[in-house]
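Notebook, bench 3.
Goal today: get a predicted structure for Ribose-5-phosphate isomerase A from Roseibium alexandrii so we can plan the truncation constructs. The sequence was checked against the plasmid map this morning, with no discrepancies at the termini. Length recorded as 232 residues. Pasting the sequence as submitted so the record is complete.
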Amino acid sequence: MSDNLKQQAAERAAEDVISGMRLGIGTGSTAEFFVHALAKRVADGLDVIGVPTSERTAELAASLGIKLTTLEELPELDLTVDGADELDANLALIKGGGGALLREKIVAAASGKMIVIADGTKNVDTLGQFPLPIEVVPFGQEATRRAILALLREMGLPQNLQLRMAGEHPFVTDGGHHIFDAHLLKIEDPETLAQALVKIPGVVEHGLFLNLASKAYVAGEDGVKTITPASM
């Protein structure tokens, strides 16, 4: 059922794409449904060019006939469509479960608008049940880990920080970095946490996407509903 809901949200977002758009194309299982939906429209004559947020997305989109470029060639985009691991009523997001958070955030920030696609299980009252990914450089990683733990302690958050693994070795992002997953349960003040994390030397980026999404299509048993930030 979850895949069916993801597909519904993805297909709804694909309807918002018009010819001539410069698109950021997200990463993850829901975003892959969007790539397939977009490819069908491209086959029917839709003229767009996309910037993928991961090597995996690039391979899939290219195999389906979607024209691709890079942010170096096209540094300003019209729209990014991407999934989320969690989203709240203000469209604050946790992303990065698939490990592409750095590129996803760069592409989203370069876009005029961002549409989030998700199934209803990703809609939460307060962020934090999904572990927050924190991307770090491998150099000095233990010092970075201790600095993150000190920040979490200072903010009264659980100091449960796990290095993401791929088998017996640390998971490596497309950018050559590692990821710590912070199991925080409830993030009452995502803005303060987001600002503090990026000040830690060694932290490249984190999975809190704040003030980036302009709309979300969330699919549930009763159809696809549109969510816009309550603050907008």
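The mean pLDDT is 97. The longest strand covers residues 111-119.
Flagging this for group meeting.
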